[in-house]
Amino acid sequence: MAGKYFPALTSNSRIWQYARSEHLTLGGMASKSRDAKVQAQLAAAEADFRALVLRFMPRGVADAVDCFANSEFNQHPQGVAPRTAYGETLLVAARHCLSLRQSLSLSPEGTLAHVYLAACSELASSDPHRRGPRRLAEALLALAKHNAA
């Protein structure tokens, strides 16, 4: 499309490759406003995820409700792990946070969403020394409270 209106800007030209690598557009610096929007979306998504963790994890600690049972991480070899609405909601919210971070080329390491997915993976593993859902919920709740401060 660029070649049609700007013949020097074919998809193989150096100018076009530079513009794409620097996230420039033919209209100017539109990617900066896009990045600002995505950063605002990321801040809102991470705040929402933290609120979900603070709401659901106390139930996981007190009632041993498995907030980590979801469609992606299955701790039962037969694939019949009971999924909970808590687990599915948290999974979707965590994945959304990480996809926004990825679109901004930000590292997910240490974020609440990353730690939640690591906890899901740990619980679904066959390691006999893995922590149970109650201990994982305690650790995630402590991190969420620390990040909220």
What does this molecule look like?
The protein has one domain (30-148). The chain is built from six helices and no strands. It has helices at residues 2-5, 14-21, 30-62, 85-103, 112-124, 133-148. Helix 3 (30-62) packs antiparallel against helix 4, helix 3 packs across helix 6 and helix 4 (85-103) crosses helix 5. The longest helix is centred in the first third of the chain and has 33 residues, at 30-62. Mean pLDDT is 80; it is low at 1-9 and 22-28.
Rg over alpha carbons: 21 Å
- Total tally of structural domains: 1
The helix content is 55-70%
Residue-averaged pLDDT: 80
Give the helices and strands as they follow along the chain. HHHHHH
Number of continuous helical runs: 6
Keywords, please?
mainly alpha; 149 residues; 62% helix; disordered N terminus
Short description:
The chain is mainly alpha-helical and 149 residues long. 62% of the residues lie in helices and 0% in strands.
List the helices and strands and how they pair.
Layout: H1 2-5, H2 14-21, H3 30-62, H4 85-103, H5 112-124, H6 133-148
Helix pairs in contact: 3-4, 3-6, 4-5, 5-6
